[in-house]
Specification:
Layout lengths: L1 H5 L12 E3 L4 H11 L3 E5 L10 E4 L2 H9 L5 E3 L3 H5 L4 H8 L7 E5 L4 H22 L2 E6 L5 H8 L11 E8 L5 E7 L4 E6 L2 H6 L3 E4 L3 H8 L4 E6 L11 H5 L5 H16 L5 H6 L6 E4 L2
Parallel strand pairs: 1-2, 2-3, 3-4, 5-6, 5-10, 6-9, 10-11, 11-12
Antiparallel strand pairs: 7-8, 8-9
Helix pairs in contact: 6-7
Length: about 290
C-alpha cells in the first residue's frame, strides 16, 4: 500500500476504477485516489476527517444528514456493515471444541498487529491461569486471520517486556470440521488455553464473557449481546498506533515518544470512552479498564 502511495511511477491499472475507503486513515485513501486518478468513495460511521470524497455510504442516518448539511450531495444511508456481518451459529463450532450446552466460555481477543500479539498473548495467558478452570470451563483465544500460527506460538514462548505474563507451549494442533484451525497452548503449570482461527462470529456468539482491547471487536460483541470487558493497557502509551500525523511524529528520536505519549493521554482525557458501543450511547455499558495492570 505504501508503495502505491509513494513510488514515482503510477501503476498501469487502466483509466476506470474506484478507491473505496472502509476504515483507517482517510488521508491515505484520498492520496491513493489522486495517485491513481480514480474517484474516491467512503463508508463512514462519523463525519470527522472524511470530507474529501466524491461519494459517501453512511452507517447511520444522523451521519448522512450531517454530510448533507455540509454540502455533500452524493450520500447514501446503508446501515452499519458490522451489524450485517455478525451472523453464524455457535453450535457447530461448540461441537468442534468440545463445549457442552450450559458450559462457560471465556474468550480473549489479543488483536491482530504484531506488537499486540507479542505483549497481550502472555498477559492473557496469565489472566486465564489466574481465573482457572474452577471458574471457567473453556478458555479460548480468538485469533485474527492476519496472525500466523507460529507468530502466536513464538509470542507465548516468552513473557512480554511490558505487560509481563506467563509462557506456554503448543501441545496440540488440528483443523475442525467447521474449517477452523486450532492450537492448544499449555502453561508451565498445566493450564490449557485453546487458540482458534476461523468461525469468528460463531465463537463470539458462543462466549459467556469476552475480554478484548478497543477496536471493531467491541462493536461486534455488542451487536451479539456478549458481556465484554475492555482493557486499555497504558504501560507504554507511545507504542499505541494512532491515525494521522502524530503516528509519524512519534518516530522522531527521543522527542517523538514523549509527544505521542502526551497525545494519547490528551485523547483519553477528552474521549472518556474507547469501546465503540460506549461511544455510541455516551455512557459505559461495556466496562472499560485503563491503566497499568
Amino acid at each position: 500500500a505504501f508503495g502505491l502511495l509513494f513510488r514515482r511511477r503510477r501503476p498501469d491499472w487502466g483509466d476506470r476504477g474506484l478507491v473505496l475507503f472502509l476504515g483507517g486513515d482517510p488521508a491515505f485513501a484520498g492520496r491513493l485516489a489522486r495517485r491513481l486518478g480514480y474517484p474516491a468513495a467512503a463508508y463512514v460511521e462519523r463525519v470527522a476527517g472524511a470530507l474529501n470524497f466524491q461519494q459517501y455510504f453512511a452507517a447511520y442516518p444522523p451521519v448522512a444528514e450531517e454530510l448533507r448539511t455540509r454540502g455533500k450531495s452524493n450520500v447514501h444511508f446503508v446501515g452499519n456493515l458490522m451489524a450485517s456481518a455478525v451472523k453464524g451459529r455457535a453450535e457447530e463450532v461448540a461441537v468442534d471444541l468440545g463445549v457442552q450446552p450450559g458450559e462457560t466460555v471465556l474468550s480473549f481477543f489479543p488483536g491482530s498487529r504484531p506488537w499486540q500479539i507479542c505483549h497481550l498473548v502472555p498477559f492473557f495467558l496469565e489472566m486465564a491461569q489466574l481465573l482457572g478452570q474452577a471458574l471457567v470451563q473453556h478458555q479460548l483465544m480468538i485469533m485474527s486471520p492476519f496472525v500466523e500460527e507460529e507468530q502466536l506460538v513464538n509470542a507465548a514462548s516468552k513473557p512480554s517486556s511490558i505487560l509481563g505474563g506467563i509462557t506456554a507451549t503448543c501441545v496440540e494442533r488440528w483443523e475442525g470440521v467447521a474449517g477452523n484451525k486450532v492450537v492448544v497452548l499449555k502453561t508451565v503449570q498445566g493450564h490449557r488455553v485453546t487458540a482458534v482461527w476461523g468461525a469468528r462470529y460463531e465463537l463470539m456468539k458462543g462466549s459467556t464473557l469476552a475480554v478484548t482491547i478497543p477496536g471493531t471487536n467491541t462493536a461486534e460483541l455488542g451487536y451479539l449481546h456478549v458481556p465484554t470487558v475492555v482493557l486499555v493497557p497504558l504501560h507504554r502509551p507511545e507504542i499505541i498506533p494512532l491515525p494521522g500525523l502524530i503516528q509519524w511524529v512519534g518516530r522522531i528520536p527521543r522527542l517523538g515518544p514523549v509527544l505521542k505519549r502526551r497525545a494519547v493521554e490528551t485523547y483519553l482525557r477528552t474521549h472518556p470512552y474507547v469501546a465503540l458501543p460506549n461511544q455510541w450511547v455516551g455512557r459505559e455499558i461495556m466496562p472499560e479498564y485503563k491503566g497499568s495492570f
